[in-house]
Description:
The complex is a heterodimer of chains A (285) and B (449).
Chain A (H helix, E strand, L loop, with lengths): L2 H33 L2 E5 L2 E4 L3 H7 E2 L2 E2 L2 H30 L7 H9 L6 H17 L9 H29 L3 H9 L4 H12 L1 H17 L2 H6 L11 H11 L4 H27 L5
Antiparallel strand pairs in A: 1-2, 3-4
Helix pairs in contact in A: 2-12, 3-6, 3-9, 4-6, 5-6, 6-9, 7-8, 9-12, 11-12
Chain B lengths: L1 H19 L4 H5 L2 E5 L5 H15 L3 E5 L5 H9 L7 E4 L2 H6 L11 H5 L6 E4 L2 E6 L3 E8 H9 L14 H13 L1 H8 L18 H19 L15 H13 L15 H6 L5 E5 L2 H6 L12 E4 L10 E6 L3 E4 L5 H16 L1 H10 L18 H11 L3 E3 L9 H17 L4 H20 L2
Helix pairs in contact in B: 10-11, 10-17, 14-15, 17-18
Amino acid sequence: xxxxxxxxxxxxxxxxxxxxxxxxxxxxxxxxxxxxxxxxxxxxxxxxxxxxxxxxxxxxxxxxxxxxxxxxxxxxxxxxxxxxxxxxxxxxxxxxxxxxxxxxxxxxxxxxxxxxxxxxxxxxxxxxxxxxxxxxxxxxxxxxxxxxxxxxxxxxxxxxxxxxxxxxxxxxxxxxxxxxxxxxxxxxxxxxxxxxxxxxxxxxxxxxxxxxxxxxxxxxxxxxxxxxxxxxxxxxxxxxxxxxxxxxxxxxxxxxxxxxxxxxxxxxxxxxxxxxxxxxxxxxx
Amino acid sequence: xxxxxxxxxxxxxxxxxxxxxxxxxxxxxxxxxxxxxxxxxxxxxxxxxxxxxxxxxxxxxxxxxxxxxxxxxxxxxxxxxxxxxxxxxxxxxxxxxxxxxxxxxxxxxxxxxxxxxxxxxxxxxxxxxxxxxxxxxxxxxxxxxxxxxxxxxxxxxxxxxxxxxxxxxxxxxxxxxxxxxxxxxxxxxxxxxxxxxxxxxxxxxxxxxxxxxxxxxxxxxxxxxxxxxxxxxxxxxxxxxxxxxxxxxxxxxxxxxxxxxxxxxxxxxxxxxxxxxxxxxxxxxxxxxxxxxxxxxxxxxxxxxxxxxxxxxxxxxxxxxxxxxxxxxxxxxxxxxxxxxxxxxxxxxxxxxxxxxxxxxxxxxxxxxxxxxxxxxxxxxxxxxxxxxxxxxxxxxxxxxxxxxxxxxxxxxxxxxxxxxxxxxxxxxxxxxxxxxxxxxxxxxxxxx
Lengths: 285, 449
């Protein structure tokens, strides 16, 4: 097909996807931003408020309200910690499982399995385990926000390490054998081979995995809801749960929830783009 | 060019066809769309709807929201063009949220049939909803074990009737709890404590941040002379000392570790059901759980009784707490015909034999309408207890917690302070602050324009 007919038929081929994308994403998204400036009971029954919803995120009854700010830094901390642990551990396991030790396939399957269980079910199971263990110390998973924090970290790591491991395994297997062989002939020891050959060759994989764990951390909802429900108080609410809680828990605050959701989107978008720029710049061609 | 003509012709044909395809019949007779609040009664409502359609030809759709998802479901259903014509309003807070959607029920037959005209939720000078069912709560007790205990020589009281005030109740609970092994040996019971555990997890904390908190609110509203279920914008927490005394009794006479109550510690219903506890604060809806053989509980319908939550304020006159969180509201934004059809359907439910039978025997609920008499009186023994207390001249306690502004937020703060107080990491003043200041704060928020 030459360029001219390409130009001519381009809209016809793009149209179905474009229509679906508009109906399923662009319209609700734009409408959502619009609603964040309104007071509404249902999405079709709104009245214009202007920026009131945005100021009410931070100021309630004339006083500074730190609930949202708290959940913001709590989420940020959670995301950083979970991203680091998941990537380091899954990379280590992937290295082990590409060494050709006996039972490699079995181990890969076992590590991957937690990922197949839904977040809610998984968290309820872990909730029972945590509380059974902690009850002998007269504590529960929601005794303080830090018990809740590490509880969620454990569950999320347990769930995601297997998934990231599979991606790392695929990446490691794609590192050309001749590169490693050449490094060995040059006298590089195993630490040097890891540092100067394998990791640089794996940068695309690392980009993917850090991107996934970063956005997963920010968007985490199921595990938060089922494991801690935001308790104690609202101290273990991550952003997504905080938004949900505002939307449905406070009378007439649907608009405020929506405004929080808009801020949430901007934040995740900025961080994801920045992270992507940062890691792709380190990729070798 | 030929192609384009054909396409535009087809499109216009489709447009014209869709204009004529409007269903004409439903416009005349109206239709009913009921968004049901009680998941356990879903099948009963589906059956009633099918029966009604068969008898009258009026289409009735019933959709049931998943447990805990009512508001979410209602919000999305109301945004559709086919919106619910009958929905549930739980309290004043919800009547506020849905003010633009509630039809004034004051002139309806349904309202006329109400035995107690205070069983409505009023907002903005109209009757926003009428009670669909009433429930009662208090302290459920194991009659059999308690009678055996009273027969013991060492018991604090010699008959259950003597337990008619807070001091005696507390003395009995403390005595049972402190001598649990001795009592088990003598009576052959399997008690682990007097009260079933007071779990502060999300599945149980409403018993204390809602129901128990209703008592200090009730007595304060009564003092102030305001509407007992609509409440007022600022409270003083006059009766919070009594609230603390009752709470301390629950925690102190139960086998659960106070530090682990936040996660629910033990399953209170099972503790009571298996005969491990004598007292359990909950409501008459537990009757079906205890009498359902599938649950495998030791207690039977004859074993259980209910007494008021003696609060140390007006114990001689206090009855069970009777009220509801289920009010039927009719959607004022539906068409004239649909509103009438919905009212007719609800009237049919409370007047026809099929409807009344379903409410009593299939759903197992107590309806506050004068049509439920004789053969249709409630089969729930705990619900009957409420009537017995009322007949004995006691005043039923209103469900004053229905006035709570921003229910979820207010309760969450109270529960969090109560948890800290109970596990020793906080003090009682924080509970007071969450209760009193939190109330005024949430009230302002909920009522601002």
